[in-house]
């Protein structure tokens, strides 16, 4: 399987495998490369992220060691990444790449509520903060996505329309689609690389990836590029359904997908990967 996957989690944040188990799984699948991207520290919610005292400091040397070892022993490239949450401070120089994600709505009054949590918490937040107005919720979410892209310029953007998890918005609603399309166009101006993310499909919450495939032709038209991500939290989920995703991308007009290498981002021809 000549794929590469740069959005994966380990026990350093909310994943279930060690760095070594993830690397071994990627090698066993015959992949071209693996990136580890545990969650940056969100001081307002320590449940899913790397904690400073225990994990952040140990994460970097552990992945660097795996990187060195696998390069020497197997000539297999491992990358040290981080899933950089909006509202979280990181020292980006420490990482080979960053994924820009929004998991929380952060209000100007300091109020914070999760976008990516149990349904009752997400719906409770929409009710409490936006008086139940889901379009306002979508606007607030996408404002964060655009701001994250513009200010921080991560290597690629994570799960562009994560807010749709649990069916919070009607993804056929024209008013919603207009808000999302505008945000997508703004995002691509700052960060042209967008991931196709299988996280919710792996969890059985959605049948389609993030972003909703209906946005793929627009990404293509706007000159955006795609990187495939499993968002795997366990070793066996690395590169989850990548062949199906490549066919989906071809259907939207893409001929290539992007891959991080030690010399920068390269474009792989989908026809050759399949
Ligand atoms: Zn995420
Ligand atoms: Zn993730």
Walk me through this protein's architecture:
This protein starts with a strand and ends with a helix. The chain has 274 residues and is an alpha/beta fold. The strands form 4 sheets. Strands 1-2-3-4-7 form a 5-stranded parallel β-sheet. The protein has a two-stranded antiparallel sheet with strand order 5-6. It has a single domain (4-273), classed as Alpha-Beta Barrel (TIM Barrel), CATH 3.20.20.140. Helix 1 links the parallel strand 1 (4-5) and strand 2. The model has no long low-confidence stretch (mean pLDDT 96). It is globular and about 55 Å long. The longest helix is centred in the N-terminal third of the chain and has 23 residues, at 52-74. The protein contains 9 helices and 11 strands. The structure holds zinc ion (2 copies). Residues 7, 9, 83, 231 line the site of one zinc ion.
Describe, in short, the structure shown.
The chain has 274 residues and is an alpha/beta fold. The protein contains 9 helices and 11 strands.
Task: State the distance separating the first and last CA atoms.
Answer: 9 Å
CATH class: Alpha Beta
Name the overall outline: globular
Continuous helix count? 9
Overall CATH architecture: Alpha-Beta Barrel
